[in-house]
Each structure stands twice: as C-alpha cells, then as structure tokens.
C-alpha cells in the first residue's frame, strides 16, 4: 500500500483530488491511501505516510513542510498547480510514483 499525505489549507477542494487519485490508482491496480490534512494537522501524521505532497495554495509554507518531512525521511513535493486545478489524479499519482522511485534509487546508491 502506498500512503500519501497531502498538506493543504482546509481539505475542501483537495478531497476531490483525493477521489481522483484513488480512481486512478484502482484503474492501475495500486493500493493507495490518501489523506488530506491542514498545515496545522499534518505534523502528527508524518510517520504514517510514504509521501508528502503540498497543495499549491499553501506553497508559501513549502520550506517548513519540506524540512519536517525530510527530517522524518519522507519524500516531499509541491503538487503541480495545473494538475491540482484540473483535479488530475492520474498525473498526481504519477508524481507520487516518481517520488517513491527516486527515493528508492537514492537509498540503493552506495
């Protein structure tokens, strides 16, 4: 199972993206768990995820979120604004898979 945490402002519009991502994952036979939490809530849940994504509307908090996620050993990235705006779950799922692949390749390096 791939566990994704999306850090957003309130989770309202992000819930649409979550549904789109779950549909894309099911179509590709991936087991995916996606949770959207506000910038004030995500810190307590870092240990429970594999990837942290940052919603574009809170990109001003990117450095602090990246710092905490990296300290927890979690790959982190900003969701591409166009993919967020269009609720393109397939593209965001691809971003998650790429982040995981890069992380695994980085850990395999001597």
From TrEMBL:
GO terms for molecular function: kinase activity; protein-N(PI)-phosphohistidine-sugar phosphotransferase activity. Keywords: Kinase, Phosphoprotein, Phosphotransferase system, Sugar transport, Transferase, Transport. The modification Phosphocysteine is found at residue 8. One of its GO terms (biological process) is phosphoenolpyruvate-dependent sugar phosphotransferase system. Residues 1-106 form the PTS EIIB type-3 domain. InterPro entries: PTS_EIIB-like_sf, PTS_EIIB_2/3, PTS_EIIB_3, PTS_sugar-specific_EIIB. PROSITE patterns: PTS_EIIB_TYPE_3 (PS51100). SUPFAM superfamilies: PTS system IIB component-like. This is PTS EIIB type-3 domain-containing protein. It comes from Thermogemmatispora tikiterensis.
């Amino acid at each position: 199972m791939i566990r994704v945490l999306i850090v957003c402002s309130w989770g309202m519009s992000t819930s649409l993206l979550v549904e789109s991502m779950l549909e894309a994952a099911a179509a590709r036979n991936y087991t995916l768990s996606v949770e959207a939490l506000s910038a004030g809530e995500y810190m307590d849940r870092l240990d429970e995820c594999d990837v942290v994504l940052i919603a574009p509307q809170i990109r001003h908090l990117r450095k602090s979120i990246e710092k905490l996620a990296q300290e927890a050993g979690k790959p982190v990235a900003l969701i591409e604004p166009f993919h967020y705006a269009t609720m393109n779950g397939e593209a965001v799922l691809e971003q998650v898979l790429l982040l995981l692949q890069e992380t695994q390749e980085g850990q395999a390096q001597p």
